[in-house]
Amino acid sequence: MSDTPSDPMVGRLIDGRYQVRSRIARGGMATVYLATDLRLERRVAIKIMHGHLADDNTFKARFVQEARSAARLAHPNVVNVYDQGQDADMAYLVMEYLPGITLRDLLKDYGRLTSEQTMDILEAVLAGLAAAHKAGIVHRDLKPENVLLADDGRIKIGDFGLARAVNNNTATGQALLGTIAYLSPELVTRGIADARSDIYALGIMTYEMLTGEQPYVGEAPMQIAYQHANDTVPMPSVRIPTIPHELDELVLWATARDPEQRPRDARVMLDQLLDLDRLVRPAPPATGQSATMVMPGGVAAAVADADTQILGGAPLVPAVAGVGTAVATPAALLTDKSRKRKNRGYFLFALVLLLAALAGGTGWFFGTGPGSDVPIPTLISASPEDATAQLTELGLEAALSTEFSGTIPAGLVSSTNPDPGIRVAKGSTVTLRVSQGPQPIVLPALAGLTADAATATVTELKAGIGATDSIFDDTVESGLVISATRELDGADVSQGGDYFEGMNVNLVLSLGSVPDVSGESVDDATAILGDRGLLVTTGDEVFSDSIAEGDVVSAAAVNEGPVRAGDTYALTTSLGPKPVTVPNIVGLPWNEGKQVLTDLGFKLSYNLGADAIAPLLSVASTAPAAGTDAPKNSTVTLKPTNPFG
């Protein structure tokens, strides 16, 4: 937390009651500030919706939903909501202020947690989530950022902004909500969430706490979503061999792709975690002495007579004679809690061992004995022969089937049933699905369709749109498909053709024809072509009998090939009509000389007199004189000879 004087909200009084002190955090929907409730004289956290979302009824409704959802919960492991309201154009939410860090901060500092620390945090989160599920609320955005570790040792779930009431078919609406790294397969594929979707997110968080990494990574969100929908979360011990087998089973149970195979709600998983805790925790040391512990303020019976403490503030630890006062960090508190649990004694440990022995071969988790079960190995991309051999070595039977696959080459194993990582009894049959390559499809004619229609047609066939190009075309209307090719091999499918599911189709769209700017001024032509996204440069100058001097005679693309937006057009401008050289017709018969000038496009001017006989005359001179350049259509004056000397 840091002061942000430049933030206009800092120092503002909201609704005449909440004095904003500093900014704590900023998220996608709102910003959280530290504020003082002047009426009750206590520090609170106030969440204020971003101004640009204030007019969006959907976001506003979701914001109010957070207040209603959280207000229905009263549990030590859920952040309390005190108030919700509207101040002018601001929607706000007032919550309990918890100084401390988030689980994400803890993971950044320590990389990964011990098994005991993981179980401590998971127990607290499950306890709060169980209360939410009992109240009919699904959180839908569980992630380390929403698990708060207070300075006084409390662990709480916050941010119920995406929460909704539980039913058998709770949907997300038009878009998937929640962080992609923690989305359950049913949210990715069908947009449906219930309490078991929260369990899946907790399973991913547990894997991350134990290993320090998320199980699925990718360069694009859709790559991660695809893995959630199609892959099985690996056992944490594959990455960290020292992780207990029981925690492997817990993660696999919580992250089963089929929601029916997961705990039905947080209470079921919490009960199993408490049983598991007794098995996983190491036995306490056989000594009569207890390690010295730093107790968080307000929780130990030994400090019942200490001074009154302010909840939510810095922990106040009373001094004991000979012992200095210490402030425990969240990591130290977790370690302390783990140490205390180790001192439960041999009696409870022996009792658990006895109960485990009585359970015998039925196991304690999925109803099967871990000692007699084997995990199905990852056989993807193996040949059927190699995959069969691996299963045989594990005491499993192999059966073959086929399926189409856009990612695994034909002839190799593309998937198994059950999925890799699932533990099954020896002698069980594992089905090896062998890839037949991509599934064939037939594309219809795409030329002449709009871009949206072509995209819909292709995606309905489970293919995709690859590269899209747009060019000017004199024959195809703007916005329509000119041609289509298969990205796989460049084959033309403009009029339809065979293809494969999952492959991309490249489209070329029309920008319409390039405007004709002949006869326009250079400025007007530049503006017309610029409006179509074309650049303009000055080209040649030519004589023109029909285009006025300085105007555009023609325009042409500088580069060869299809013309695209951003290409350059060169303008050819007019020099006006081409000058004509006056010929030497002096001495020619009058009528013959006239005809020569007329054929060259000159106008004639002369005066023969009333008594002149033209056939008897010849040309005496011209003005302009012979050899002079004169504009076409200009006038040449003729002077005849005197036939009588």
Automatic annotation (TrEMBL):
SUPFAM superfamilies: Protein kinase-like (PK-like). Its EC number is 2.7.11.1. Residues 371-436, 512-575, 576-642 form the PASTA domain. It is an enzyme of class 2 (transferase). Gene3D superfamilies: 3.30.10.20, Phosphorylase Kinase, domain 1, Transferase(Phosphotransferase) domain 1. It catalyses: L-seryl-[protein] + ATP = O-phospho-L-seryl-[protein] + ADP + H(+); L-threonyl-[protein] + ATP = O-phospho-L-threonyl-[protein] + ADP + H(+). NCBIfam families: PknB_PASTA_kin. This is non-specific serine/threonine protein kinase. It comes from Cryobacterium sinapicolor. The lineage of its organism: Bacteria, Bacillati, Actinomycetota, Actinomycetes, Micrococcales. The gene is pknB.
